Amino acid sequence: MNIREFFLGDFKVFGLSDGHFHLDGGAMFGVVPKTLWEKKAPADPKNRIKLALNSLLIRTKKATVLVETGIGTKPLEKYEDHYDVSQEPGLLPSLEKVGFRPEDIDFVVNTHLHFDHCGGNTSVQPKGTIVPAFPKAKYIIQKGEWDDALQPNERDKASYLAKNFLPLEEAGRVSFVEGDSQITEGVEVILTPGHTAFHQGVKIRSGGNTLFFLGDLVPTSAHIGLAYIMSYDLYPLVTLETKKKIYELALEEDWTLAFVHDPNYHFGKITKFGIKYEFQPLP
Question: How many domains does one find in the chain?
């Protein structure tokens, strides 16, 4: 198990993983031709690329925050074969290895409610009841994202699985936010639309240092280029403008960036040469 951990000011940060899955490379890179993207992300015989299911755990002096919960442990039926999911060892064993139990989590943040980002929100009990997997946590979800998940359009309907989020509301564990909001001291969500209308990133600040969890705004380090935008994005031109905005802030304030789907790099930074942005791994 490869767990990256470091101090961000007074906070302890852990890069955890729920495993890997595979998606079509062409869909992942949109208008960018395969001759370019396959240099960054080699495809298998089915044209799929390997993607991580990364999560972020932040331990502040006041709270423990988990960002993203991966695919989770509930049966995925057709998804397992279609996406070639591998969950060794999985999010909960990763949490256990760094000394945390589900009951220790105070806040869970979902960047959005697609199944590969919130599947671990809930778990199945022996009698079949679906309950919050982190029983004491408040789940931080954009109200607009929640509303869209309840009434998805035909294009992304398959990505929203009600069993991943409806039981949270039934248990009274959802905390809706609208736009940029502070979750706890040093941790806030920032609206980063494009992939979905109400996609949110997570900004962590301590001791003059900043870490920003990008979610599906920039899913891997191979997507740093401005034109590298997924076909899955509902609003690709909005994604483009959001990327520009976040990149300039990241450069100005020297942010470290966290990637949700990168199988090789959980964290990194960006540099700029002329008008071109490039990925820089952490030492």
Answer: 1
